[in-house]
Amino acid sequence: MRVARVVPHSFRNLADAAIDLGPGLTVLHGPNGAGKTNVLEALFFALTGRSCRTRREREMIAFGGELARVEALLEPDDGEHADPIAMLASISSGEARRRLVDGSPAQPSDDHRRPAISIFMPDRLALVKGPPSPRRAHLDRLAGALWPARAELPREYSRALAQRNNLLARVKRGGSPESLGAWDRELAERAVPLTEARAAAATELAEPYARAGEELGLAGGAEIAYRPRTAELDADGIVAELAERREGDVARGFTGFGPHRDEVELSFGGRSLRRYGSQGQQRLGLLALLFAEREALRAARRQLPLLLLDDVMSELDPERRSRLVAMLEDGGQALITATEIDHVPSRDAAALAIAAGVASPTGAGG
Ligand SMILES: Nc1ncnc2c1ncn2[C@@H]1O[C@H](COP(=O)(O)OP(=O)(O)OP(=O)(O)O)[C@@H](O)[C@H]1O
Ligand SMILES: [Mg+2]
Question: Please, where are the H alpha helices in the chain?
Fold first, then answer.
């Protein structure tokens, strides 16, 4: 499915107007503060019921307004047999969020009816620059998208981990360590499939990540490597490791060993992107990751995610901008924002000028 139209209402600075989108690349251009990022956020909100910018979702309600609402109309892609779908999300100052799909309250299964969304926003660079936990979560979400049967593994592991940590804290305060053995076993049994899912997802990404890195001009070759903390890959081995470290865990009051300490390393030319990448290189690394995931999803599910790219062109040189545009023109629906249309050197892209919260078509891109 692809998004044919977005209709924001009282959503940040966006006026009450329909924005029509083509099937390929659309450039949203306009000055700072025009409303470009708001359009991406509005679309994300309509499809997911969440914001891609903030946890304080009432911020999306237009100043002085009561209720923000966005509707997105989804249409089947060429050759796809499906009925159009209307997805609507709203949030008001008094009430909780609401999501409707074709007029009825959204069900969890509706998330499979919309395209997956891949999003680049400057603050998502934390994924490349920051600590490992968002990288793990990101890999876990990909594994869940590739293999829905694995989607619950991270939650199941976290539950077992929380239980064991509770117990450790109790033992530290003088409680009985009796049931620790059972929780070691439980945790180990949750750790094994999670580690396997991460390894499998990283394997799926390895080749397309290297290819995307090269296409984008990331110097020295891009590599992704999953580095599990658990060298032991079976439950018995992990149980033994946990037993060996139990004393330290009790002293600390939490579990210091296991997949919640795994690293997912991104590198270029054999060096850590996190430590040694320039601003532009880190951007390219994140973009390569998004493209690699797109490839993996295309192979596994025969569908391309919707790409939302905010402010991605700043800090890229003209050569790399062209490379990125060529990859975007290669297929799938994508929205990209830029302060100047010339920053997106595309012949085929549709362009929308955004000014003071109003979008108007400007014909072919620059
Ligand atoms: N709740 C709100 N109600 C009304 N306006 C808002 C609200 N939240 C933010 N804005 C305003 O919306 C305007 C557009 O914001 P947006 O982030 O979309 O700009 P942009 O076009 O992406 O600019 P830039 O190029 O600087 O990233 C800003 O002036 C911002 O202050
Ligand atoms: Mg912006």
Answer: 36-48, 126-129, 132-146, 153-172, 180-216, 235-244, 246-252, 273-276, 279-301, 318-328
User: Residue 54 gets which letter from DSSP?
Assistant: -
* Residues 207-241 pLDDT 10s: 999 999 999 999 888 999 999 987 667 999 999 99
The domains of the chain are located at 1-115+303-366, 123-302
In angstroms, the CA 1 to CA 55 distance is 27
pTM: 0.89
- Ligand 1 center–CA 75 separation, angstroms: 28
Probe target for ligand 1 pocket from 36, 53, 308, 336, with the most ligand atoms within 8 Å of CB: 36
- Which chain residues have CB less than 5 Å from ligand 2, an ion? 37
Is residue 333 within 6 Å of ligand 1 at its C-beta?
no
Q: What is the CATH number of domain 123-302?
A: 1.20.1050.90
What CATH number matches the domain at 1-115+303-366, 3.30.70.260, 3.30.420.10, 3.40.50.300, 3.30.1360.200? 3.40.50.300
